[in-house]
Amino acid sequence: MKIVIDPQDPSPKFKQLMTQIQRQIVAGTLIPGEKLTSVRKLAAELNINPMTISRCYQNMEEEGWLERKRGVGMIVARQGLQGRMEDRFGFIEPTLKALIDDAREVGYSKSEVMALVMQYWED
């Protein structure tokens, strides 16, 4: 599990952590049943308060992303993730909307934006 907390990001650290873990689950980097790094170890690695990690894990458990396994710790949920996996668009929608708004503002046409997207997709 690779997590990077951006001190310049105005969003709370626990939210950054949640988003990164969710993205790794959706991408298949973290698979159902896989054990997550312990609260203490991850807090030490990221140099943040263990309560931040604990809050993140608890929220993700309540939302069905993770499950607590006695004697093991937190693992990626084995069931109930299918709907979340199909909702991958939610991770890029704000960025995509901002791109479209910016492109319109400076006068790009739809076809020009699509051409740029295709160019960068191939790179």
Automatic annotation (TrEMBL):
Listed SUPFAM superfamilies: Winged helix' DNA-binding domain (SSF46785)
Domain of life of the organism encoding this protein: Bacteria
Protein name as catalogued: GntR family transcriptional regulator
Keyword terms, alphabetized: DNA-binding, Transcription, Transcription regulation
Native species: Grimontia sedimenti
CDD domains: WHTH_GntR (cd07377)
Keyword Translocase in annotation: no
Domain spans labelled HTH gntR-type: 11-79
Gene3D superfamilies attached to this UniProt entry: Winged helix-like DNA-binding domain superfamily/Winged helix DNA-binding domain (1.10.10.10)
InterPro entries: Tscrpt_reg_HTH_GntR, WH-like_DNA-bd_sf, WH_DNA-bd_sf
A molecular function (GO) term: DNA binding
A Pfam family that the UniProt record links to this protein: GntR
